[in-house]
Design goal:
By secondary structure, the protein is mostly helical. 76% of the residues lie in helices and 0% in strands. It is globular. The model has no long low-confidence stretch (mean pLDDT 89).
């Protein structure tokens, strides 16, 4: 597998994972966005304005949980780089552990009632921490890929490049960039759809899918520094 093919596969895997986990958290836990801090700010505003909205505390705690995931990933990566350990594999393992906690806490909390129990809140915060670690790992170790959990910028770039190609102003770099940003968008959307159906059919155990993706990614070699 060439470096370009490996990068494409990773961007698809990570985009699918982010869309899947974010949607499953939203469907299962009162509209919680595990990978989307902006969305949770919106939901906090809605909940404050309408006291009937459930689980405002979960939305508030999601932000520090996301920060905690970023901090854990950053410190782990720094330690790995100092000791020349495989930083990406350790960062992916951290995500596996946090997502497994999300799944197990969610299964223990099921069925989820109209308000968030302690176990349900634990599940949501572990999921949010996992996606904080995902975002930090992507930025620090997979900078050669398009962002895999923030699709607004990706869609914007794809549309800009597509317009340039259609008006004849694009070059080879434009086409390559368009492909780079397109695949995570497609994968994120596919993951979102898959998660909605999977949770409806199987509940929290459906999180085994992103965990399996991360385990498969652990088999791939570490990217070379500066690889594109």
């Amino acid at each position: 597998m060439t470096p370009g093919q490996r990068n494409r596969l990773r961007s698809i895997d990570m985009g699918f994972l982010a869309g899947y986990v974010d949607t499953l958290g939203f469907v299962a836990l009162f509209g919680l966005f595990t990978a989307h801090v902006t969305g949770n700010f919106v939901l906090i505003g809605v909940a404050l304005a309408d006291a009937s909205k459930a689980s405002i505390l979960l939305k508030f705690l999601a932000f520090p949980a996301f920060i905690a995931g970023i901090a854990m990933a950053r410190l782990l990566i720094l330690a790995a780089e100092r000791r020349q350990w495989p930083a990406l594999k350790l960062a992916l393992t951290l995500q596996v552990i946090l997502l497994a906690g999300f799944m197990l806490a969610g299964m223990a909390a099921s069925p989820i009632g109209e308000s968030a129990s302690a176990l349900a809140m634990t599940a949501g915060l572990l999921g949010t921490a996992a996606m904080g670690a995902h975002s930090a790992s992507s930025r620090l170790l997979l900078a050669q890929l398009a962002p895999t959990s923030m699709m607004t910028g990706n869609v914007t770039q794809v549309v800009i490049d597509s317009i340039d190609v259609l008006r004849g102003a694009g070059d080879a770099a434009t086409g390559a960039r368009c492909g780079k940003f397109f695949w995570p968008v497609l994968a994120f959307g596919t993951g979102a759809i898959a998660a909605a159906f999977a949770f409806k059919a199987f509940g929290f155990i459906a999180l085994i899918v992103p965990i399996a993706i991360l385990c498969a990614e652990l088999v791939l070699p570490e990217p070379a520094k500066g690889a594109t």
